[in-house]
Amino acid sequence: MKKRPDLFGAAIHYEPFLFPLLSEIPGGERARMEKVRTMFAPAVGLAKKGDLEGAAMRFMEGAFLMPLGSASTSVDPWSEIWRDNSRTIPAYGAMTPFPISCTDLTHINAPTLVVQGSETHIDTAMMADQVANCLGNAFTIRVSGANHGIPMRAPAQFARKISGFLKTTN
After folding, report:
1. How far apart are CA 59 and CA 154, in angstroms?
2. What pLDDT does residue 77 have?
3. For the chain, how big is the Rg over CA atoms in Å?
4. Dihedral, CA atoms, 88, 5, 126, 69, nearest 10 degrees?
5. What's the rounded mean pLDDT across residues 125-140?
6. 66 and 38 together in one domain
7. pLDDT digits (tens, 9 = 90+) for 90-122
8. pLDDT digit string (tens) for 14-67?
9. In the listed set 97, 125, 147, which residue is the last one of a domain according to the structure?
10. 23 in any annotated domain
11. Which H or E run contains 106?
12. At 9, is the secondary structure helix, strand, or coil?
C-alpha cells in the first residue's frame, strides 16, 4: 500500500503492527520495549532452546493476553493451528520491521477502517491510533472488551464490522 496507494479502493487495518510509528509517539518506544520484555523475550528464549512449540504457545499467550500455560489447552482448532505454525517462529523472529512513517501514510487516500480492541496492548493501541491520525481519512472502531484475538474469539462480530464499513465505500 505504501508503494502503490492508487491500487486500493479501501483499506482495513486490524491492530496494525507498524513498530516504526512508535518512534514518532511520546512513550511509544517505552511501550514497544515493554512488549519485547514481556511477550517476545520469553518466546525467543524458548525458541533458542529448541522448543518451538513452547515458543509459539508463549507468543500466543502474550499476543492474546492469555494466562501463562493456557494456549496449549485452548479450544480447538486454535491450539492445533498454533502448534502447526510453531515452525514459523524463527522466520518471524528474524523479520525486520517494515519501514514506514506518518508521512508515508499521508499518501494513502483510500477510505480506511482501523479496528482495535479496547483491551489490547498499549503499544498496539498506540500504533492503531497513529495510523488513524496520520491517514486523516480513517474511521476507528474499538471493540469493547476485546484484544488482539477479536477474529479468533468473535469472528462473526468482526466480520460484521468490516462488512458494514465496506458497504459504505461502494
Report:
1. 20
2. 87
3. 17
4. -20
5. 92
6. yes
7. 888 788 888 899 999 988 888 999 999 999 999
8. 999 899 999 999 999 999 999 888 888 899 899 999 999 999 999 999 999 899
9. 97
10. no
11. none
12. coil
Enclosing H/E stretch for 164 = helix 155-168
Identify the band that residue 1 occupies on the pLDDT scale cut at 50, 70 and 90.
low
Which of helix, strand or coil describes residue 46?
Answer: helix
Name the burial class of residue 25, with classes exposed (0-12), middle (13-18) and buried (19+) by CB atoms within 10 angstroms of its CB. middle
User: What's the 3-state SS for 108-154?
Assistant: CCCCEEEEEECCCCHHHHHHHHHHHHHHCCEEEEEECCCCCCHHHHC
How far, in Å, CA of 110 to CA of 114, rounded? 12
Overall domain count for the chain:
2
Q: Which domain holds residue 112?
A: 1-18+98-170
Residue pair 148/121 in contact by the 8 Å Cβ criterion: yes
